[in-house]
Amino acid sequence: MFRIPARRRAIGGAALIFMRPRRWIPSQALLIFVHGGFWLLPDDDYRIGPSLAENLVRDGVAVALVRYRLAPANRHPAQAEDVAAAVGYLIKHADE
């Protein structure tokens, strides 16, 4: 799916996909991308997140894509909890 190496991690019900430039160090910027879609539509259908992430990584910016659980199979606030868990994980592991 990605043309740039990506690390994947399950965080609660979410999937976190992390991509970084080769020469990136943890003190540099990180963009956290949470796709739109009214909690219903996966970003895979549009490839906005992956395309944006690949371009940013090529320009030297690390990117974390958050893939939260979708409604209606998962009731609100599951989606917001997934995003909060992913952001919390990134903060906790910021120096890695």
Q: What would your notes on this structure say?
A:
By secondary structure, the chain is of the alpha+beta class. It has 2 helices and 4 strands. The chain has one domain. Helix content is 27%, strand content 23%. Strand 1 and strand 2 form a beta hairpin. It starts with 6 loop residues before the first strand and ends with a helix. The model has no long low-confidence stretch (mean pLDDT 84).
Rounded mean pLDDT is 84
Secondary structural class: alpha+beta
Poorly predicted residue ranges: none
**How many beta-strand elements?**
4
Q: Domain count, please report it.
A: 1
Tally of helical runs: 2
Question: What is the CA-CA span between the terminal residues?
Answer: 25 Å
List the keywords.
2 helices, globular, alpha+beta, 96 residues
Strand and helix layout:
Layout lengths: L6 E5 L2 E6 L10 E5 L13 H11 L3 E6 L10 H15 L4
Parallel strand pairs: 3-4
Antiparallel strand pairs: 1-2, 2-4
